[in-house]
């Protein structure tokens, strides 16, 4: 459990949520639109415009096309489910579990996050985030609540593996509150 400065003990700065969103952003960057992204990420850049009926057996071509359509369809389904935090089957066939609100930091947290944002509000914010259902909107949301701070100046000769520091916030009807990473994230 968190005993002292929760930020100081964090080596991996971004939470599962941020990692997940960032991963998807890098995937999305491969293509200009959602549909073409799905196609390119599923088929490794196969040219959709290639008319295989001109160069091969028509029966095989139809099968090939059908398989590609099925793959693209499965890929789109998985993507849609992933974007809203539901369980899905990855491209490698791995079953990825549904996103759930984790326990958080508990009473030992020095920020007392649970007394600032109650569990119901936390649940609500979690669902609101996943209901955005779109990487861009989720990124926009995170940009508003996860703020990067400049690294504190270290003494001469002191070495630190810590490169970035983040502040995590939750917003509710009463305002914006800084919380610890454990409370904010999914770990
Ligand atoms: Zn906390």
UniProtKB/TrEMBL annotation:
Q: Where is the composition biased (Polar residues)?
A: 47-62
The region called Disordered is annotated at 38-68
What is the protein name for this chain?
Uncharacterized protein
Q: Which organism is it from?
A: Plakobranchus ocellatus
